[in-house]
């Protein structure tokens, strides 16, 4: 098992492993990454059903592949050529493929591009091309990914630089495990060196990867040798970039590696942010994706690594730029198929005695129990009508995707069961593992419709949705037959309350029956003393994902509402909401729970507004955190975000699209950069009127289920006098 892998060039690769006293380093001298080339498969999923073509020569290669072999032979990027038989798809038998041993990792893409240019773009299919460097090495050599924690625990060290701090002059603000290490760049370099020597970490967790080049720049200026890794130097793996995903602009920072240590960038690590190092290590063991790469990997990349492992187990090679045309579908079927999960319009208002039921891992369990997989949907060998409403067939042969997800589903169920009796460090470890697995399961279905998914397919995505819709409607009908009224439903969750004038069968018994009939467990999530469903901002129709409710039997913890009130979609759940506005909403929810009185809620708001107008609110609690979608020059309207971007530029801080800007509003009616102050700037001014408007909107979310809107709140605030001593 390896902690990390360093590519040294010229075919040499260093493997770093945990050892009782530190680490061990072994160098492989002759590593040659391998890719394969095959004749293009007419039908990626093998539905044509015809026999494999008879090989025209003794080594099994087709004429086209022999011509390609002659073309590649002798090229500098090619170290060796051979023939091996492997399966090109999950539905085809093994066929002779051209094996190409590349001269280096970087030469793999060079070879693949030359293959595509050699003939028509669709003449050949390349396999195992765009694997990440460390994952490729582990797959090619059979070396297990992940540190061997039976030897000793993984040691970590954190290097933290405040957000938006940039340049070598900002290094004195760097901290090591929360402690400052110097008042000048040179002192900081010396402090980091001393900490590394003392702690000898295996994993460096940095708040931003920019710390790496900044420290080396400062070391060079001070003429000091610095080794962030266990050998000199560092490698830049990728530059920063901006991307768009599902209409949302994101930013990917530059990536770096240091020899012999894993580098995790908190600003670019979804899994570290969601589940910590323990969750990351758990996913390393499940996916086979090395920790260095899992640190920056997306959910889809980790899922792909798991799929690749399963494909390798079945001797299926991983296609590069796979072409997956949709099969012909009538327009009427397209209209039915192009739908997502079902959401029932909520019954706006406050409801007593509400119960929530959820299908456990609905989409993954649909995949598993219905054998939904890219090669099983509309397989061509089965003439059945299996997918409700669409008429798609599902093959009788076991699909690969259920085998990918099955172990994850079982593992999460076992972890959830173990959590009931766990506490302390064991509970933290289990929660981290559960969180990491949850995100893979949440995304597995959507990834089937992603155009760049290695083994995805849109018909598979459509079939999963169709089965899920049927399950929700069947559950709704069963609950209503058992005397319950369904108030709301979202894809895999249902909220019910006793139907008036009817006897109710116990919910656990009904849920058990639905679970047995559907093959997917319907869990009784919790009971609410009351639940409020909000209308939309501009109508009385129910907002599909904005609601809140008081969990039965739970009290308010000292830190606020905590788990006592579950909220979804309202301001307190939005990352851009200032902490003070969130606190105002929590106070409003508490008052609403205790009194159900709009007037009492407005009184709680009035007390908070009094502090705001008196200048007694800490500006740090008024910081707005907004994600930037484009460069400052590309915005047409002069919004507060634009003002913050202009101010950041004045301060020498460049914020790229996809990154966040944090600011306090000081004068919303001013012009340009004067409207805001950035979060790291000193100052105690703020625009009380702007924050009052934000607080009123947050309270409106609490009162809208009982019919009070912003005008009603403002009218009450204007009509009621403050009779307390503080009012005089």
Give an overview in words:
The protein is of the alpha+beta class and 728 residues long. Strands 17-19-20-18-21-22-23 form a 7-stranded antiparallel β-sheet. The protein has a 5-stranded mixed β-sheet with strand order 10-9-8-11-16, covered by helices on one side. It starts with a strand and ends in a 9-residue tail after the last helix.
Instruction: Supply the CATH superfamily name of the domain at 333-426 and 450-535.
Output: B family DNA polymerase, palm domain
CATH class of the domain at 333-426 and 450-535: Alpha Beta
Indicate the low-confidence ranges by residue numbers. 43-54, 558-562
Question: Could you give the count of β-strands?
Answer: 26
What's the rounded overall pLDDT mean?
Answer: 89
Query: Within the CATH hierarchy, at the fold level, what is the topology of the domain at 333-426 and 450-535?
Result: Palm domain of DNA polymerase
- The percent range for strand residues is 15-25%
Q: State the share of residues found in helices, binned by percent.
A: 25-40%
Any guess at the CATH architecture of the domain at 333-426 and 450-535? Alpha-Beta Complex
Main β-sheet, spatial strand arrangement: 17-19-20-18-21-22-23
The helix count comes to: 19
Mass-distribution shape: globular
* N- and C-termini, Cα separation: 72 Å
Structural class: alpha+beta
What profile does the largest beta sheet have? 7 strands, antiparallel
Compute the CA-based radius of gyration. Answer: 29 Å
GO molecular function, one term: DNA-directed DNA polymerase activity
InterPro entries: DNA-dir_DNA_pol_B_multi_dom (IPR006134), DNA/RNA_pol_sf (IPR043502), DNA_pol_B_thumb (IPR042087), DNA_pol_palm_dom_sf (IPR023211), DNA_pol_type-B (IPR050240)
Protein name: DNA-directed DNA polymerase
Enzyme class: transferase
């Amino acid at each position: 098992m390896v902690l990390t892998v360093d590519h040294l060039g010229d075919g040499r690769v260093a493997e770093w492993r945990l050892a009782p006293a530190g680490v061990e380093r072994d160098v492989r001298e002759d590593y040659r990454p391998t890719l394969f080339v095959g004749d293009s498969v007419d039908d990626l999923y093998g539905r044509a059903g015809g026999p494999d073509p008879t090989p025209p020569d003794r080594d099994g290669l087709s004429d086209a592949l022999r011509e390609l072999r002659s073309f590649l032979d002798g090229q500098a990027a090619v170290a060796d050529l051979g023939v091996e038989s492997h399966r090109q798809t999950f539905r085809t038998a093994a066929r002779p493929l051209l094996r190409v041993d590349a001269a280096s990792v970087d030469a793999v893409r060079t070879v693949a591009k030359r293959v595509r240019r050699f003939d028509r773009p669709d003449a050949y299919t390349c396999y195992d091309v765009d694997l990440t460097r460390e994952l490729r090495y582990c797959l090619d050599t059979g070396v297990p990914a992940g540190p061997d924690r039976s030897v000793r625990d993984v040691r970590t060290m954190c290097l933290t630089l405040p957000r938006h701090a940039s340049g070598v002059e900002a290094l004195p603000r760097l901290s090591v495990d929360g402690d400052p290490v110097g008042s000048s760049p040179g002192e900081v370099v010396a402090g980091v060196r001393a900490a590394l020597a003392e702690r000898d970490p295996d994993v460096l967790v940095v708040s931003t990867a920019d710390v790496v080049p900044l420290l080396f720049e400062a070391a060079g200026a001070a003429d000091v040798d610095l080794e962030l890794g266990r050998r000199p130097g560092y490698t830049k793996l990728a530059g920063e970039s901006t991307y768009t995903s599902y209409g949302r602009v994101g930013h990917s920072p530059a990536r770096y590696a240091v020899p012999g240590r894993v580098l995790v960038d908190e600003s670019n690590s979804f899994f570290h942010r969601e589940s910590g190092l323990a969750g990351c290590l758990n996913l390393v063991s499940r996916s086979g994706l090395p920790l260095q790469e899992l640190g920056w990997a997306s959910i889809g990349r980790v899922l792909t690594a798991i799929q690749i492992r399963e494909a390798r187990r079945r001797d299926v090679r991983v296609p590069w730029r796979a072409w997956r045309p949709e099969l012909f579908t009538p327009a009427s079927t397209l209209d039915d198929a192009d739908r997502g999960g079902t959401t029932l319009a909520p019954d706006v208002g406050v409801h007593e005695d509400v119960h929530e039921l959820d299908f456990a891992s609905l989409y993954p369990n649909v995949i598993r129990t219905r054998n939904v997989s890219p090669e099983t949907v509309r397989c061509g060998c089965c003439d059945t009508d299996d997918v409700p409403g669409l008429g798609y067939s599902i093959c009788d042969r076991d699909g690969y995707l259920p085998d990918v997800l099955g172990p994850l589903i079982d593992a999460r169920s076992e972890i959830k069961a173990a959590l009931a009796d766990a506490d302390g460090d064991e509970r933290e470890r289990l929660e981290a593992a559960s969180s990491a697995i949850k995100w893979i399961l949440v995304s597995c279905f959507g990834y089937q419709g992603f155009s760049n998914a290695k083994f995805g397919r849109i018909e598979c995505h459509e079939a999963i949705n169709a089965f899920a819709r049927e399950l929700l409607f069947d559950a709704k009908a069963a609950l209503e037959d058992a005397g319950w009224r369904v108030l709301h439903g979202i894809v895999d969750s249902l909220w019910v309350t006793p139907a008036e004038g009817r006897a109710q069968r116990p919910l656990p018994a009904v849920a058990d029956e639905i679970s047995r009939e559907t093959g997917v467990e319907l869990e009784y999530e919790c009971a609410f003393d009351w639940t409020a469903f909000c209308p939309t901002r501009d109508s009385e129709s129910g907002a599909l994902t904005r609601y809140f409710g008081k969990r039965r039997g739970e009290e308010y913890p000292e830190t606020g509402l905590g788990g006592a009130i579950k909220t979804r979609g309202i301001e307190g759940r939005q990352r851009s909401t200032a902490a003070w506005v969130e606190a105002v909403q929590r106070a409003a929810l508490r008052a609403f729970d205790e009194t159900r009185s709009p007037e009492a809620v407005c009184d709680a708001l009035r007390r908070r507004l009094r502090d705001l107008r008196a200048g007694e609110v800490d500006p740090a609690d008024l910081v707005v955190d907004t994600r930037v979608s484009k460069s400052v020059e590309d915005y047409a309207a002069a919004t507060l975000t634009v003002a913050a971007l202009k101010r950041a530029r004045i301060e020498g801080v460049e914020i790229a699209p996809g990154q966040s800007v944090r600011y306090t509003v000081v004068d919303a009616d001013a012009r340009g950069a004067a409207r805001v102050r950035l979060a790291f700037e000193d100052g105690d001014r703020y625009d009380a009127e702007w924050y009052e408007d934000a607080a009123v909107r947050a309270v409106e979310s609490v009162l809208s289920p009982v019919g009070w809107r912003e005008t009603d709140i403002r009218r009450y605030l204007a009509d009621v006098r403050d009779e307390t001593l503080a009012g005089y």
